[in-house]
Design brief:
Chain lengths: ~220, ~290
């Protein structure tokens, strides 16, 4: 007589994440492009340093890559699996977030090597918020039934980001961190508010209808 | 016994040009109604309204608003054209039932790219009218500005057309070409990154490479000690007239590249493409 061994949930989660961690190739491409852009500019213009425009473009590229984290080409099939949305997304999220973090650290190292000092923490917070906003937009589109929202969200993130960069001086507003400092409390509050809004949007848009209580009070999946 | 005979119907006359124009009109409507295009136009209109509310003031660098035209109509138009072109692929089953070839559909999409170019032309006309009402002035007033009067009229006109309407035409044409050749997930993003980075990086390079991108910086701006722009002038060593010819050739090459995707009767397209490539090289070498 054999006894079926039920693996613990946490162990199963980690095992799944480790064995099936995968990174969407557009994310890898955008992360590689962001890092390559900063490195190439740093090497090409060693005296002038990497301009804030190039840093912003690399930030936006990372956010574009983050938009692909929600993609699930087989969503119609995987949605029927007895796993929650976040457990299904975990391998991609872990791999993708790791790659984004490593890429950003490489960019920060290059920037520090070129010009020590500067608002490194502030621009890191900027990247995090931009990624959250991109993921939130992708989660909303995925909720509407698009299995691969990354392809729709990523170009729009870059378009809106470049537009904000170019119209910032025209409108006389401070959207991104200025070179000389953090840009004031109001700007930081806006960015923090955007992050909170993005996180709430992601959580609301990623509710799994299969795990909630149905109309008749029946919990569909334990 | 009776035999029913079906009368042979005459073959329908296929008239390529009216069909193409009808398709182009339909695609132009789709282009004009696309949310991203509307967002780009709306942003430009908002900036115009903001400038009207602030009152006309003679700008010492009157050519810089062409940057916004190139962004909001050219780069946004790239994505719109890419989306419209790949939408044919997404609805492939339906598209294949239509009696129109893929090349004709591509040509119609290329013609639809005249929509952002028309919008850019309107914005350029607004720039001319605004500058007529409040002529650009430097600080002090004797300082030169890159505008009619201080620079040759033909050069300013060529710069306005090249950096405005032609940029708004070239971006969408490139979007059609990229979508036809690389209809995979993420190709719009890759194309846009190449477009933005490939345009911005050579602009800071020295001559002659600064005139290589499809949107080049044709005017230098001079600032005072506080960083305020006080005067401007056309870049030395770059002829705006020949640059206009160069970017027009690039537009033609983008359209040819899009049409070349279909492997039928390519020889005339190759010939035209070769001529355009030679013309582009010639114009570029004359421009710098």
């Amino acid at each position: 007589m054999t006894t079926a061994v039920q693996p613990r949930v946490a162990r199963s989660f980690v095992a799944t994440a480790m064995t099936r961690t995968r990174v969407p190739w557009p994310l890898a491409l955008t992360a590689g492009t962001a890092a390559a852009l900063v490195v190439v500019v740093a090497l090409a213009y060693p005296a002038q340093g990497v301009s804030s425009f190039v840093v912003r473009i690399s930030e936006l590229l990372l956010a574009c890559g983050a938009a692909y984290l929600i993609d699930d080409a087989a969503a119609a099939v995987t949605a029927t699996a007895p796993r929650t949305v976040w457990r299904r997304r975990a391998p991609t999220f872990l791999g993708g977030a790791g790659l984004l973090a490593v890429t950003w650290i490489v960019i920060l190292v290059v920037l520090s090597w070129q010009a020590p000092g500067g608002p490194r923490l502030a621009i890191t917070w900027e990247v995090v918020v931009l990624c959250c906003l991109a993921i939130a937009a992708a989660a909303v589109i995925a909720r509407l039934g698009e299995p691969e929202p990354g392809g729709q969200v990523a170009p729009v993130v870059l378009l809106l980001g470049v537009s904000a960069l170019l119209t910032e001086p025209v409108l006389g507003v401070t959207i991104f961190v200025p070179d000389e400092g953090k840009g004031g409390v109001a700007r930081q509050l806006w960015w923090t508010g955007a992050a909170v809004l993005a996180l709430v949007t992601v959580l609301v848009a990623s509710r799994d209808p299969a795990t909630g209580r149905g109309r008749h009070g029946v919990r569909l999946v334990p | 016994m009776s035999a029913a005979t079906v009368p042979r119907s005459s073959n329908p006359v296929v008239r390529p040009l009216p069909t193409l124009l009808s398709l182009a009109r339909a695609d132009a409507r789709r282009f004009a109604r696309h949310p991203l295009f509307l967002f780009g136009v709306g942003s430009l209109v908002a900036l115009v309204v903001a400038s009207l509310l602030q009152g006309f003031a003679g700008d010492p660098a009157p050519l810089w608003p062409t940057l916004l035209v190139a962004l909001f109509l050219g780069v946004f138009g790239f994505v719109v054209a890419h989306r419209l072109t790949t939408s044919l692929r997404r609805s492939g089953d339906l598209a294949e039932t239509s009696p129109v070839g893929q090349r004709q559909r591509t040509a119609a999409l290329c013609l639809a790219c005249l929509v952002p170019a028309s919008a850019a032309t309107l914005f350029t006309l607004y720039m001319l009218v605004a500058a007529r009402i409040a002529p650009p002035v430097g600080s002090p007033a004797s300082a030169p500005v890159a505008w009619f009067g201080d620079e040759p009229d033909l050069a300013i006109l060529a710069a306005l057309v090249a950096l405005g309407p032609v940029a708004a035409l070239g971006g969408p044409l490139l979007g059609v070409a990229v979508a036809r050749w690389a209809p995979f997930r993420g190709s719009a993003l890759v194309g846009m990154v190449v477009l933005v980075v490939g345009t911005s990086l050579p602009s800071s390079a020295g001559s002659p490479w600064q005139a290589l991108p499809p949107w080049a910086v044709l005017a230098d701006e001079f600032a005072d000690g506080n960083g305020r722009v006080v005067s401007s002038s056309l870049v030395d060593g770059v002829s705006p007239q020949w640059y206009l010819g160069y970017v027009l050739c690039l537009c033609g090459l983008a359209a040819i590249a899009a049409l070349l995707r279909d492997p039928i009767n390519r020889r005339p397209l190759f010939a035209v493409g070769a001529l355009l490539a030679l013309a582009a090289i010639g114009c570029f070498s004359l421009a710098v």
